[in-house]
UniProtKB/TrEMBL annotation:
Entry protein name: Ubiquinone biosynthesis O-methyltransferase
Domain of life according to the entry: Bacteria
UniProt record similarity statement: Belongs to the methyltransferase superfamily. UbiG/COQ3 family.
Annotated source species: Undibacterium pigrum
GO term, biological process aspect, one: methylation
Pathway: Cofactor biosynthesis; ubiquinone biosynthesis
Main enzyme class: transferase
UniProt xrefs under NCBIfam families: UbiG
Keywords recorded for this protein, A-Z: Methyltransferase, S-adenosyl-L-methionine, Transferase, Ubiquinone, Ubiquinone biosynthesis
Length: 249
């Protein structure tokens, strides 16, 4: 396991400060990060069902405290996690060491990392991160640059509409208090068609899509077909040029 210090620009200082402040609670499943712990098994199994993680070279962009990165390593992938928030990275490294899980972590933006790692990864994940940066298109382009031809890129984020405002912000942050107030800004949510357009521009093609649902009675998440709030896209970098896929959401 190694930590490399490489930092760069596409970040919101207020977002980084907030995640640094919360870092010590990242692996506490009753903390503010409870939703990530509940979501993780679903996104992990979905990713693994499409790419078969064992033996794959994987990059997790915006890895935070390492919940997804560590779980992919446990599946047998060779995982690197990058983030610009240094305290969550430290927590991720400590936890991986304590659990004897081999994950490499680096303090870097996707754009900076791409300068030295073009075409290196079989799989790239960027989950619950794009809505926290000023330029999601730059992260998407860097992801496309770093994945091998034939490789996969997985994105998850939140749709921008009235329903997502009421559920992801009003309900989750103010009524049920599942997330801390101020976790999300509705203006930074991304419509699926917008994300697809940015990914297509970067040379990625849609292969599969899922919506993320939450049941407040059972406090459980599931993947389903409705993409009106949270959603995940599985993109692939084709071996050769092919037509662009479309979304209706």
């Amino acid at each position: 396991m190694s930590t490399i210090d490489i930092t760069a620009g596409n970040a919101d200082p207020a977002e980084l400060a907030r995640f640094n402040q919360l870092a010590s609670r990242w692996w506490d499943e009753s903390s503010e990060f409870k939703p990530l712990h509940r979501i993780n098994p679903h996104r992990l199994e979905w990713i693994n069902s499409l790419v078969q993680l064992p033996g794959k070279q994987v990059l997790d962009i915006g890895c935070g405290g390492g919940i997804l990165a560590e779980s992919m390593a446990r599946k047998g992938a060779q995982v690197t996690g990058i983030d610009l928030a240094d305290k969550p990275l430290q927590i991720a490294q400590w936890h991986a060491q304590d659990q004897d899980v081999d994950v490499h972590y680096a303090n870097s933006s996707a754009e900076t990392w791409a300068q030295q790692h073009a075409g290196q990864y079989d799989v790239i994940t960027c989950m619950e991160m794009l809505e926290h940066v000023p330029s999601p298109a730059a992260v998407i382009q860097a992801s496309a640059d770093m994945v091998k031809p034939g490789g996969w890129v997985f994105f998850s984020t939140i749709n921008r509409n009235f329903l997502s405002y009421m559920l992801a912000i009003v309900a989750f942050e103010y009524i049920m208090r599942i997330l801390p107030r101020g976790t999300h800004r509705h203006a930074r949510f991304i419509k699926p068609a917008e994300l697809l357009s940015m990914a297509n521009t970067a040379g990625l093609v849609l292969r599969e899509q899922r919506g993320l649902g939450y049941n407040p009675l059972t406090q459980t998440f599931r993947l389903h077909g409705f993409m009106g709030v949270g959603y995940l896209l599985a993109m692939q970098k084709p071996l050769q040029a092919e037509g662009q896929a479309g979304l209706n959401n």
